[in-house]
Design a protein that fits this description.
This protein is α+β, with helices and mostly antiparallel strands. Helix content is 26%, strand content 41%. The chain has 3 helices and 7 strands; from the N terminus they run E-E-E-E-H-E-E-E-H-H. The protein is globular and about 45 Å long.
């Protein structure tokens, strides 16, 4: 049987900032449900681009501001709410962060180096995005 359920498009930020050591730090947030460490993401609303959604979700979910860098890092699919969600992820260079943000009451935010980020990100799909981000940043 073919699944004819329409999918929902989401966009994901892989937020980072350069450090004095030359190694990037990544910003992770806790998921609203289980409290797992993830990257900010959300549904692409009608009329929005993927890049616009990346910036909006990073601000709402983590209080981050910055710019999207380059082409997508990758994408993945998951199932929730009885439907399929297609996620496209982008590297986001963070320039400023808010001390208080829309979802601060129920999300934690954590800046960490690549190895700590890998340990905190329990989902292989998110670890692959981290790898893609590290590869892209190493090439710059």
């Amino acid at each position: 049987m073919i699944d004819e359920t329409p999918s929902i498009q989401q966009a994901c930020a892989v937020p980072y900032r350069p450090t004095a050591s030359g190694k990037p730090e990544f910003c992770l947030i806790t998921s609203a449900g289980r409290g797992d460490w993830i990257f900010p993401k959300g549904i692409v609303d009608p009329g929005e681009t993927l890049e616009t959604t990346v910036l909006k979700e990073a601000e709402e979910e983590a209080g981050l501001h910055g710019k999207v860098e380059g082409e997508p890092l990758g994408d993945y699919v998951y199932h929730k709410w009885g439907t399929t969600l297609q996620v496209t992820a982008f590297l986001m260079r963070v320039t400023t962060e808010d001390d208080d943000w829309d979802e601060a009451e129920f999300r934690q935010r954590c800046w960490c180096g690549p190895s700590e980020a890998r340990e905190l990100l329990q989902r292989p799909k998110l670890q692959r995005l981290l790898d893609a981000a590290l590869s892209r940043l190493a090439a710059d």
